[in-house]
Design a protein that fits this description.
By secondary structure, this protein is an alpha+beta fold. It has 6 helices and 12 strands.
């Protein structure tokens, strides 16, 4: 269980130390697994019977059913599923979307980090789920192979671990910076769009990618664009940012402008894209207005 914070707009919530007031929000992972599979399934069934639903985190989370695998109906079914997922997520109010994003990212991080990266012992969730620690001992005798209690080692003390000394005694949630960029031509009349082979026909997007270690955001934008499309950028300006918990990204939006001599598309550097092309702004506006590029 994760404590997400207080909604201070709710005057009927709890009061803590006379300073912190509001309605508390919690996130609970009800994924059926481990020792509570049956309990989780029962809870999910009960909630769904009362009209509640569990929204897809992103369209890529949609699992392919037998109907989707059928060549006859796959395109129609997949497209409908994608539209329904997109519409349901876009209809979430901004406040609710922010709470959902925080919950998803923290639950995912806790689930992915059950063991200490230094000594391999199980970690303990602390600070209401915002940190994980490797404690010096366990309150109960362990039966796992990691930190196992034996007649030769009857206590619940753990072996020494360097994470318990100095300031590195806690593990914090990770955030991976990711860039997404609107690349404009040197004369500012066209925008660069690309597509991956697995996407539905005629779907194009701006380019995106991860920041590498020791790389600035601007350098990441230039590198990703060159790797994926062969376009060389000059000026890069950061536009805005958005949390993107899939599972732990911070999406950094930028605008980059191609150099006059670097506008030739070359897909030979990276096989990620099937196609990349310059699209006149008027055509892009028409596609956004009508939902199709014609």
């Amino acid at each position: 269980m994760i404590f997400l914070g207080l909604d201070e707009r709710n005057s009927n919530g709890l009061i803590y130390k006379e300073q912190y007031k509001g309605a508390p929000f919690f996130a609970v992972d009800v994924t059926p697994r481990g020792s509570y599979v049956d309990i989780a399934k029962k809870l999910i069934t009960d909630l769904e019977s009362r009209g509640y639903s569990f929204a897809q985190g992103r369209v890529m989370d949609i699992e392919a059913s037998e109907g989707m695998r059928s060549r006859v109906c796959s395109y129609i079914f997949v497209f409908r599923q994608i539209l329904e997922a997109l519409l349901s997520n876009m209809l979430i109010h901004l406040d609710s979307a922010s709470i959902y994003a925080e919950a998803r990212q923290l639950l995912d991080w806790n689930a992915r980090n059950p063991f200490c990266a230094q000594c391999g012992s199980p970690t303990l969730s602390v600070n209401a789920g915002f940190k994980r620690a490797c404690p010096p001992k366990d309150t109960a005798k362990l039966t796992s192979s990691i930190g196992k209690t034996t007649p030769e080692l009857p206590s619940a003390d753990r072996p020494p671990c360097s994470t318990r000394t100095g300031i590195s005694n806690l593990s914090f949630p990770r955030t991976d910076p990711t860039v997404i960029m609107a690349v404009v031509s040197a004369d500012a009349s066209k925008i660069l769009l690309g597509r991956q082979k697995k996407w539905p026909a005629y779907w194009y997007s701006t380019l995106a990618g991860f920041c590498e270690p020791a790389e600035s955001v601007e350098e990441a934008v230039r590198r990703e664009v060159w790797e994926e499309s062969g376009i060389e950028l000059g000026r890069v300006v950061i536009h805005s940012t958005q949390p993107w918990p899939y599972p732990a990204n911070l999406m950094i939006g930028a605008i980059g402008q191609a150099t006059p001599q670097g506008e030739t598309v070359d897909l030979g550097n990276d096989p990620e894209l099937e196609d990349a092309r310059w699209v006149p702004f008027e055509e892009a506006r028409e596609a956004l207005r009508t939902g199709t590029s014609g």
